[in-house]
Amino acid sequence: MKNWKFYNALFLRVFIVIIILFSSLYLAQKGLYYNSILVAAVVIIALAEMYFFIKSKMSFYDKTILSILQNDYSTNFPEEQRKGSFKNLSLLYDTLKEKQQEQTSKELIYRSILNNIDTAILILEKDNDNWNIFLMNDCFSSTFAVPKVSHWNYLKNYLPSLCEEIENTQFSELKTAIDVKIEQQDLQTFMLQTSLTKSLNKEYFIILLDSIQRVIDKKEKEAWITLMKIISHELMNSLTPIRSLSQNLLQIIDQEKLEEDDFDDIKSSISTIINRSDHLQIFVENYRKLAMLPTPDKKPVSINALFEDCLKVMAPILKEQGIELINNINSSRSILIDKSQIEQVIINLITNSIFALKEKQEKRIYLSTLTENNRFFITISDTGKGIEPEIRDKIFLPFFTTRKEGAGIGLTLSKNIIEAHGGYLSYQTDENRTNFVICLI
Known about the structure:
This protein is an alpha+beta fold and 441 residues long. It has helices at residues 4-29, 33-69, 87-115, 138-143, 152-158, 160-168, 212-253, 260-291, 303-321, 339-356, 410-420, and strands at 120-127, 130-136, 174-181, 187-199, 202-211, 299-302, 324-327, 334-337, 364-372, 375-382, 424-429, 434-440. Strand 3 and strand 4 (187-199) form a beta hairpin. The chain is elongated, with a radius of gyration of 42 Å.
């Protein structure tokens, strides 16, 4: 119904041509040959006019469809062609044009985001059996000093070690460390991570490269900033009241005559100064423990003997708190450790479990060991309240504590001791238990 004008005009032209054609045949039958030829000429002219009418109308369809197929939305069609029989096609063209502009805007935003990321990113697009470079961000180009080439084979001329590593895996997903030589510089180590993905029948291979040294530097910087905040906070908590009380004392002793109340104020101020000084001294001593941890003096130690000595120390506290300790350790093996340091770690972890069980009805601590793949695991679990999600990334930070009487160095010191032994300390938490796992190689 929307194309009725076009169809009516076409029908009228066909009808006129048929009438003229029949008129030509009728005149020929009557012997009026010259008139018949003249009318036949009119038929030819009418057919030609109808041909050009249809062609002019269909050219808009052709141009529009060709523009859509070629993703070319730069054509501006006359307003009269956007009405009537071409209304829906014009609407389709404008809708696709708007979507294409929206898609282009999104691509520019995504490229801008990727170019501002500190990680080197390379995205390849598969073309038959070859790979073309779909995107290389600015970080990749600047880090490896390569131009933004468009073909994988060109990139191999600049970064042969990286390209060979990826080709050896046949463009499969991997995560590994790789040494890459950049121009004439020494080899640099990067963390390489790749992934394969498909979209709209296209296959893409994503390559991410992070400088390990840069990651380490970033983590060290973050750790130092956090540590300095904690130290500054502790120092200010002690120095501010000490300074204030010292000024108060100066004002008191500058008086010509001291009253009895003044002596009480002096005693109180001096007592507070001593308390804050003691707190500051303890804080510095704790920091020294972390900073000056001695190298482990490793000797063969019986596993059973290690835990027997630890439990002798903790038994009175466990009994006082009404905590049931379930010891599943029974091993005749020995491990190469610094006994006093590992005892300190185990006692620290059991002490943390005792604190976690304070408000619990069911008070149990579980001890277990496991030997697997040349690694020795010690697990200390409790049925306590667990670790809150918002503090899980902070529990190993120096001086971080949730206990009023805590110094905040127990877990940090324990972690440092285990790492000095060449192992690691980790934790897992769920609804029923919190597990701290010591791994020693």
